[in-house]
Amino acid sequence: xxxxxxxxxxxxxxxxxxxxxxxxxxxxxxxxxxxxxxxxxxxxxxxxxxxxxxxxxxxxxxxxxxxxxxxxxxxxxxxxxxxxxxxxxxxxxxxxxxxxxxxxxxxxxxxxxxxxxxxxxxxxxxxxxxxxxxxxxxxxxxxxxxxxxxxxxxxxxxxxxxxxxxxxxxxxxxxxxxxxxxxxxxxxxxxxxxxxxxxxxx
Length: 202
Description:
Blueprint: H1 3-13, H2 35-41, H3 44-52, H4 58-66, H5 73-85, H6 89-97, H7 110-127, H8 140-154, H9 159-182
């Protein structure tokens, strides 16, 4: 028997280990659309519905929808800001009418809810619309104090100054909600369950 025959016989009886060999399933080779890509290619009505969950202004939603596709999230956020800056008083009134009341963290003591309700009632009586404020960067423990402080401070505004402040808070809220709805998975290496799987070693 030749040397090559000996090698072949040895390998047939002692195959090479496979623990370092990983094979990818066919679905791994398919690109998974990101939330932004799905937004860019969605029907216009669906895109508007997504945007209206971020800001209840039809004009704002239609303008952002009309300028798709966006190359990245920064471009989408810039478009959101620009459209928000251009809202008319009627657009702002529409957006404000769709805003929920600010919520306190779970477990807040009853007296705090009473104080907040009184402050919100005073604000609405003065300005004729709900109070809006973006507290995305506030920790749960700071929410109540920052909320009450903002209401008390802004109660001193005249209606025109408060309209400007409310418009800015709406812009910030819309941008933060866009991040949550479209940007949550944009920069993560995550895909739907079962997409990336390796066949386990034998």
